[in-house]
Amino acid sequence: MNNRREKIQYIGVFLADLIGLIISIGLAWGITDGILGKMREYASNDFLWAVLLLTLAYICSFFLTDQKGDIVARPLRRDFAQAVKFNLLMGLINSAGLALTKAAMLDSRYFLLFVPVINVFTMTVTHAALKEILKNTYKMRGLQSLVGVITTADHAENMIRDLYQDWSNRIVGLAIPEATDDEIGQEIAGVPIAANYAGFMDWLRRTALDEVYVDIPMDSGSSFVPFLEEMESMGLTVHFSLPTLNRLERDCCSETSAARMSRTLGRCAGHNMVTIGTVELSITDQIMKRALDIVGSIVGCIISIPIIAIVAIPLKLESPGPLVFRQKRVGLNGREFYIHKLRSMYIDAEERKKELMSQNEMTGLMFKMQDDPRITKVGKFIRKTSIDELPQFFDVLRGPMSLVGTRPPTLDEYKQYESHHKRRLSMKPGITGLWQVSGRSSIEDFEEVVKLDTTYIDNWTFWGDIKILFKTVGVVFARRGAE
Q1: Which CATH number does the domain 145-241 belong to among 3.40.50.720, 1.10.510.10, 3.40.50.10540, 1.20.210.10?
Q2: 65 or 395: which carries more pLDDT confidence?
């Protein structure tokens, strides 16, 4: 089963990366001391303490890095990219640890730099070696999961292809119910047809199998229930398709939306219930995203307070009224909350909006116009520099918002949403996001905004948020995209 593969792979990657790190430490020491002669004389305790901190940094980085997915199917370029991200994170954690503990080896900059740089390449090499070990040794030692497949001839090739994407599977044979006696022994995609409808149970009884995949029309021919009961009694793990769910997905979902859905099986009132929905972030991902929000918002609040204090004077002088604009918005899955911004408009801005709707430059539900007369002179400056967004760091710290996400709509906009628009609210709204760093002022179609937001949600990664944050800094300093 996949659980077995995941456990073996998880342990294998951990050990392979640890071996690679040990090699990298040795090579970095040899280059720094033996070739460059830049290593000072350190006490043995200093070196041991540095190695301990580096090991702790490695362990933290390993658990903070996404280890999901089949490593054997991962191409070399992805291995290298992941190694770069991993060692960048490890280097930062290690440097922080050395600085906080005031370790003696903190001043050995060459050594500290060479370890993660060399480890990028050793990790890539150890991963390549691990792939060969998993593919070959695992197979030679007979540790693969022995799989039997019961399916129709037109589905067989696709099932074989998908099952072989998991290196821990070995397909023993196929049972094709409609196959003739003459077709038994022939192969489909390299796998022999072992039985037809008349003999597939005898084949299951006498063949060494761990798992059976069943994909046949359950509503045709004799009931398949007795066969499933017997397979279960034999101790086999049985996977079978759900024709009703297949039809629902085919009728209701596109291929891409069906692929991104999660599916779980549970029970309610004595019945089996299949739950389908958008894939949610794992608990680890949620913790990492929230931790980034807390740290980033605290830093943002500290930076924002003096800036807000300076801007407050001209803002209040030009337009009397509250300094901070508080507005009800719609957030995660339709939850209402208050967003806070520095007031960049005159007090009667909301009332005047109805008069200006005919000049809306956006196609769809959002409002935007060039030279909006409701915006004050100081308001134009703080919008252009995104200073008006600074109070939202406090909203992030409170919890209803995130640093990176989708922009929350107003109540009026939300009331006009069609069903597919609401999917952009399936993740907590953010101060910045993919739309903001994609030239938001040049996007005039709300459907394009929705497309960018759903792309962000479907492809979310922790490192993707980091990348968007860095891009946002560049956009703000370049004063691009803000109107």
Answers
A1: 3.40.50.720
A2: 395
